[in-house]
Design brief:
43% of the residues lie in helices and 14% in strands. The chain is of the alpha/beta class. The model has no long low-confidence stretch (mean pLDDT 95).
């Protein structure tokens, strides 16, 4: 008998009230969305991750190596002067290898965790990851543990479902269309009674997408870091993209 496997998706926001969580139940015959809700504190997130086979978390798992080195050198007054402080130099400092790889592969531009507001939920994740490690749960930045970094917008691009923005109140109509297209693209995914929740709130929809990508990672259907980026991914994190494009 095939035992049911649970996959979790987390759309992590700095504010627990805006954090989405989705849980998938994968059996031998179907993949059902068991629960989707928005609003989750750290205790709930830790509990969901620990009870899952794998969790996909929409948040950067680390900072650019060059940025970390710059901050450390600046603090110690050992930073060598760069030839220029122009856009190219800043780009090398502020973006991770995985950010640039996502841009190259699917044309999406991840936010810079070193210079954008995405740093707020990333700092929250650092604290949650510390709690998981305290419980004996391995959460390496490259996603080789129970939790992997995902980016729903890039996953949609990989599935050829990227289109009009679906975020916020103004994106409600686009979300309704996207949910229908997602059901067509992933016919094995049963949204059950949670379809309206995904249309009503983009945080809920992103959580479902994150859970689906976590399942792909577990099944070997997502792209790992290439050999030349393994070292960077071990420090900076790695955005796992589903295959199929």
């Amino acid at each position: 008998m095939h035992a049911a496997i649970t996959f979790v998706g987390i759309d992590l926001a700095a504010d627990p009230k805006r954090t989405g969580i989705a849980r998938l139940r994968d059996t031998a015959t179907q993949v059902v969305v068991e629960d989707v809700h928005v609003g989750a504190d750290d205790d709930a997130i830790v509990s969901e991750i620990m009870s899952s086979r794998r969790a996909g978390v929409d948040v950067p798992f680390g900072w650019p190596r060059a940025f970390v080195e710059l901050i450390a050198a600046h603090r110690m007054a050992t930073l060598p002067p760069p030839p220029s402080t122009g856009p190219e130099w800043r780009r090398e400092i502020l973006y991770r290898a995985t950010d640039l790889e996502v841009r190259r592969r699917v044309g999406k531009n991840p936010l810079s965790v070193a210079s954008d507001k995405i740093a707020y939920p990333a700092i929250r994740w650092a604290g949650i990851a510390a709690r998981l490690r305290e419980q004996g749960i391995s959460v390496p930045p490259d996603g080789s543990g129970i939790a992997c970094e995902v980016y729903p917008g890039a996953a949609l691009a990989a599935w050829q479902l990227a289109g009009d923005t679906y975020k916020g109140t103004k994106g409600a109509a686009s979300r309704a269309v996207l949910v229908e297209r997602l059901s067509e693209r992933l016919p094995w995914l049963d949204l059950a009674s949670h379809r309206d929740a995904c249309v009503d709130d983009d945080n809920a929809l992103d959580a479902v997408i994150a859970a689906v990508v976590a399942r792909d990672v577990d099944l070997g259907l997502a792209t790992p870091p290439p050999p030349e980026l393994v070292d960077h991914a071990s420090e900076e994190g790695w955005i796992w993209l589903p295959e199929g494009f």
